Amino acid sequence: MKILSVVGARPQFVKLAPIHHAAKAAGVDHVIVHTGQHYDPMLSDVFFDDLGIGAPDVHLGVGSGSHGVQTGAMLAALDAVFDEHRPDWVLVYGDTNSTVAAALSAVKMHIPLAHLEAGLRSFNRRMPEEHNRVMTDHAADLLLAPTQVAVDHLTREGLADRTILVGDVMTDVLLATRAEVLTSVLLAELGLAQGEFYLATIHRAENTDDPQRLEELVEGLAGLDRPVVLLAHPRVVAKAAAYGIDLTRGGLIAHAPLAYPDLIAAALASAGVITDSGGLQKEAFLLGVLCTTVRTETEWVETVRLGWNVLANTAGEIAAAAMRPIPPASEEAPYGDGHAAERVIAVLADARG
Ligand code: UD1
Questions:
Q1: CATH 3.40.50.2000 occupies which residues in the chain?
Q2: Are 292 and 323 in contact (CB under 8 A)?
Q3: What digits encode the pLDDT tens for the residues 49-67?
Q4: How confident is the model over 72-115, as pLDDT tens digits?
Q5: CA 140, CA 163: separation in Å to the nearest integer?
Q6: How many CA atoms lie within 13 A of 34 on its CB side?
Q7: What percent of the chain has pLDDT over 70?
């Protein structure tokens, strides 16, 4: 069996790692295509290196651009790649522009398409990720859902017969990495004490692209009761520079993004994470770290239901949420057992026959 994975943005490299290892272990031919959506070494290369993926087989070098320009450039480049490799499956991940481009290209070429992390919904149609995931789910032949909630969404949309619950592959990586993690590099580098700082990431368009919104968030983070380390995605750095917003002020320290093992160590060392990232909400939950999500809704509703995540949109809500106490422990494991990737490979092999 030959699987061709298309990835392009940071969270997809994390999801790719366990799939690649499981494919190798099962003797499956796995071709990796990197669209080039993310190209900064700290958003791309470090994940391939640290997570043992090796170099991608094909790199499209598409880079940044408006949604249409970026997605269109990927589409234009993918036909020839799919034609050359003729895989049994094209596998797409999550909800980025790389996901929807590869999905459209694969269905047009009649190549079976599987969507990993299918069925997530924010029900916020202003989010680019929501368009991408809905369109990809409806285009795909096989929907690999991470949670029962995702299965329920797909069922309501009439897609139950294409859906399989496999668990969450980010849990696979997280559990493997946590077993190895030692000390956070941030403690020595920034002179911080264990449990005495918050770890923040803000990168979504809703939070970065309007100057007033970004200023409100930055000022709110700077005034919290503990120092805040902001792992600044290039998008927030670019927007802050354009608007004349200073990302290091008060208790707020802007820092370059971290490699995956360093991010996990930093989250574990923190008093809580404050984020608009999907992956980090779940990572915090799995690590038993409080999460405050700077959005009006989340796809990872289980983290909220079990008390580890609170949605907070204004500076006041963020401050109140960040300082809340730890919730009672729960035995629930809504994100699976850390073996989702093996299940994905088995399901793809079965569905092919
Ligand atoms: C993308 C995904 C988002 C995901 C995020 C993870 C879409 C629509 N969004 O958002 O779902 O959560 O990745 O990080 O696909 N830039 C750089 N260097 C890079 C990449 C980006 O400087 O390597 C800057 C550029 O100014 C670029 C901006 O960041 O215009 C936005 O990048 P883009 O890939 O369009 O979206 P992300 O915000 O990274």
A1: 2-168+336-352, 185-322
A2: no
A3: 999 999 999 999 999 999 9
A4: 999 999 999 999 999 999 999 999 999 999 999 999 999 999 99
A5: 10
A6: 24
A7: 100
**CA-to-CA distance for 212 and 316, rounded, in angstroms?**
15
For 185-322, which CATH class?
alpha beta
- Give the contacts of 58 (CB within 8 A, at least 6 positions apart): 31, 32, 33, 34, 81
Q: Considering the entire predicted model, what is its pTM? A: 0.96
Q: Which protein residue's CA is at the shortest distance from atom 28 of ligand 1?
A: 235
- CA-based angle 195:196:202, to the nearest 5? 95
- Distance from CA of residue 125 to its chain's centroid? 19
CA dist 258 and 199 (Å) reads 11
State whether the beta carbon of 101 lies less than 6 angstroms from ligand 1.
no
Q: Which entry of 21, 38, 203, 233 is annotated as an active-site residue? A: 203
Nearest CA to 146 out of 176, 115, 103, 187 is that of 115
CATH class, 2-168+336-352 region:
alpha beta
CA distance 106 to 112: 7
For 261-271, the pLDDT digits (tens) are: 999 999 999 99
C-alpha 45 – ligand 1 centre gap (Å): 15
Predicted local confidence at residue 142, as pLDDT: 98
Centre of ligand 1 from the C-alpha of residue 38, in Å: 6
At 192 the three-state DSSP class reads coil
